[in-house]
């Protein structure tokens, strides 16, 4: 339970940003379905999580996907909330939640698997517990961003830091660059700034 509470923040933020453009009713449905599907996938790959971390390009591609979500949120920032959307919009949001959650959740999976000491029922319990935590946190964050739109920039900046950490943590990038702490911090700051600038530019267009 403590592990889920500590590690659910990034996932809640990416879900809140992924569904922000949906009407409130479809937003709740997308959050619930996306979180459930994501947890089912997590359970399926829990025992492969350690190996997943060593597969080249997995974390890098996941980081690129998180950047895409952050830029898209800023691009759509000026659009008004719609009363209804097509089913395709909602399923695209659910797909975004599933992919982003899976690529960002390796630390959650490994921590839960380690704490459970191999007990499959404790693993399922730990991962399933993340559903109400992440959904309630995502709902709260989405409400805050609706009420105070400037907080959205803080959200996408945090996603930029998360994406930079994922990309530089990929085995291929570690082998290629051997990134120091200074390089990591610099790359994360540059990515945060690039996301905000690009998103603002696309929003104006």
Question: Explain this structure to me?
Answer:
The protein is mostly helical. The protein has one domain. It is built from 11 helices and no strands. The protein has helices at residues 2-7, 9-18, 24-45, 49-54, 58-75, 87-104, 106-116, 120-147, 151-168, 171-177, 181-204. The longest helix is centred in the middle third of the chain and has 28 residues, at 120-147. It is globular and about 50 Å long. The N and C termini lie far apart (45 Å). The mean pLDDT is 79.
Q: How helix-rich are the residues, as a percent range? A: over 70%
Task: Please count the beta strands (DSSP E, at least 2 residues each).
Answer: 0
The overall pLDDT, averaged over residues, is: 79
Shape: globular
| SSE class | mainly alpha
Describe the biggest sheet?
none
Straight-line N-to-C gap: 45 Å
Summed up, the helix count is: 11
Low-confidence stretches: none
Order of helices and strands: HHHHHHHHHHH
Q: Report the C-alpha radius of gyration, rounded.
A: 17 Å
Number of domains: 1
Beta-strand proportion: under 5%
Using brief descriptors, characterize the structure shown:
205 residues; single chain; mainly alpha
């Amino acid at each position: 339970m403590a592990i889920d509470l500590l590690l659910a923040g990034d996932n809640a933020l990416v879900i809140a940003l992924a569904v922000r453009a949906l009407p409130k009713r479809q937003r709740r449905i997308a959050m619930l379905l996306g979180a459930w599907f994501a947890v089912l996938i997590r359970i399926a790959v829990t025992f492969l999580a350690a190996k997943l971390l060593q597969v080249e390009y997995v974390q890098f591609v996941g980081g690129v996907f998180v950047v895409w979500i952050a830029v898209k949120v800023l691009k759509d920032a000026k659009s008004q909330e719609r009363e209804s959307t097509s089913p395709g919009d909602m399923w695209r949001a659910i797909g975004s939640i599933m992919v982003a959650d899976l690529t960002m959740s390796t630390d959650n999976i490994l921590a839960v698997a380690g704490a459970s000491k191999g007990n499959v029922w404790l693993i399922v319990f730990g991962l399933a517990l993340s559903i109400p935590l992440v959904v309630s946190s995502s709902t709260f964050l989405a409400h805050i961003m609706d009420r105070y739109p400037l907080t959205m920039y803080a959200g996408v900046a945090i996603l930029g830091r998360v994406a930079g950490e994922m990309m530089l943590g990929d085995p291929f990038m570690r082998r290629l660059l051997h990134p120091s702490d200074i390089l990591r911090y610099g790359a994360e700051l540059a990515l945060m700034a690039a996301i905000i600038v690009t998103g603002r530019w696309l929003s104006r267009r």
